[in-house]
Here is the input.
Amino acid sequence: MNETLPLIRTRKPDWLRVRAPTSPAFAETRKLMRRLNLNTVCEEAACPNIGECWTQKHATVMILGDTCTRACAFCNVKTGMPGPVDVLEPVHVAEAAGELGLEHIVITSVDRDDLLDGGARQFVRVIEELRKRAPKTTIEILTPDFRNKSMDAVKAIVAAGPDVYNHNLETVPRLYPTIRPGARYYHSLRLLETVKGLDAGIFTKSGVMVGLGEERQELHQVMDDMRSAGIDFLTVGQYLQPTPRHAKVVAFVEPKTFASYAAIARAKGFLLVAASPLTRSSYHAGADFAKMQAARRAQLEKAGLATA
Here is the structure.
């Protein structure tokens, strides 16, 4: 029988507690984002790691506005009709990367079901500006699913050449109707499989939250599905309820359980796995990118395919 992840307690456990951000570097990062009129998922999604990341001047930029056309039960980003696309945004993102001295940048966005291409062209413009103005910065994108849009949207982004293409599955298929009602599990899988098919050199990445009521075997099946789609990097983190109106936390998962999930995922063949209570898609993304590069080199060397 499948085993549901254990309910530890309703009060947030000690391993999920983080310090409030107070450093001067945190304030400087926030000031820069406001000056360039940029949104960040760090703020909009109430990420628990914002203090650590912004102190290190690492911020995940959220393009295409701060208003999403969907209302996922786990997400703190506001829902409504978004405003017009900011044509200066790509330049501002590149300027931020330069001023922060970023070696690696993560770009995500709200869902823009109101746009014919779902906002894909804005991702392309951002990548192009970063390549032009910050050529040494590696680029990781975390896109929506572009559901009900032409696959040309994904093809255009892949052609622009990001280093990492991330799209999160978020949870197990059984929970999609309540947790991610506007999305479809197998569509998201096919998107990532398409990316890998278009350019095998791009690292693909996806993440799931635990503590929403999923069962162990369901999560194992998601891992298998991801590997079948050629996904390189898996992230697993604890779901935290942003507000009382969002989906409730069913379980606070212990750190040792995350360690066991990481071991299982590595055994299934992922190039890299990050699994811990505070793991989020862009947490330590730069360091993880370097690890992925090293893992791929080792894999190629083992197969006798490495080049000088």
Q: What stands out?
A: The beta strands are 39-40, 60-63, 67-68, 78-79, 104-109, 138-142, 164-166, 203-210, 233-238, 272-275. The first strand starts at residue 39 and ends at 40. The domain at 14-302 is CATH 3.20.20.70 (TIM Barrel). The chain has one domain: 14-302.
